[in-house]
Amino acid sequence: MSYKELGQYLAxxxxxxxxxxxxxxxxxxxxxxxxxxxxxQNGMIISxxxxxISLSGFIGEWANMWLGPYQLKKVKKHKxxxxxxxxxxxxSMLYIDQEKRLKKMKEEEE
Length: 110
Description:
Layout: H1 3-29, H2 35-67, E1 83-84, E2 87-88, H3 98-109
Antiparallel strand pairs: 1-2
């Protein structure tokens, strides 16, 4: 998150734009349906992708510099409130020691 990283994204944007322009001009000079034409079209695709990635990175870095980095909010821990016969009604909190469960089963049998 510095001006150096913003400069790197701008350099990538410039290089991608230059490659896109050159590939477009060279593709126009080739014979229709030739392998060179396909090569320059692939160059345009790659350069266009570089432009989009650099542009999105630049916008993201600029937003981080402007707004500051994202920080997670602190969440309060809640006590277990749903209890029924010593066990939780919530499926994710049904972990009880095996010994306690066996003791309860023995007591109920007797």
